[in-house]
Amino acid sequence: MTPRVFGITGWKNSGKTTLTCKLVEEFTRRGFRVSTLKHAHHAFDVDHEGTDSHRHRQAGAGEVAIVSGRRWALMHELKDGPEPSMQEMLARLSPCDLVLIEGYKRESHPKIEVRRQAALDRAPLPDTDSSLRAIASDHAVDDAEVPVFSLDDVTAIADMIALETGLGETAA
After folding, report:
1. How far apart are CA 122 and CA 65, in angstroms?
2. Nearest Cα to 158, choosing from 12, 15, 8?
3. Is the pLDDT of residue 45 over 80?
4. Least enclosed by CB within 10 Å: which of 37, 95, 111, 137?
5. Rounded to whole angstroms, how far apart are CA atoms 125 and 161?
6. Which carries the bigger pLDDT value, residue 60 or residue 24?
7. d(CA 116, CA 120)
8. What pLDDT sits at residue 18?
9. For 33-47, what is the mean pLDDT?
10. Exposed (0-12), middle (13-18) or buried (19+): which is 89, by Cβ within 10 Å?
11. What is the residue-averaged pLDDT of the chain?
């Protein structure tokens, strides 16, 4: 089963993560199971030098799973392999009602663009594949061809996403 997905995209420091977190809170308050998929453009590490899992990876393990009574994580080293596609990563997630995807601005899934005055780049993102469904902004957007929401109106943004994805108002 392909999960319902909706993206939150925008330039660096536009407020994508803040909006994503607020949407996760809103959808879970409504009773939905929500997962997130975040694309990073840089090297990142979820463990740090000196931890046992870091030592396992440094020793050459291709995958390292960390498990406790509260959570588990699986790290997969790509070495020189290609970055997995968004679809490949979606397939690895456990079943849920909605996946909110942060980043992946060049993919064709439906998405909302976040715009903030304080962002380093305030130019509109190109919408070459007509996947942009709305804009969330902290300033007036006059030339938009899609609905524009206040960046703080999380309820209305969540309502739009629920309608767009066929999710419904609350979990059954």
Report:
1. 40
2. 8
3. no
4. 95
5. 19
6. 24
7. 9
8. 96
9. 83
10. middle
11. 90
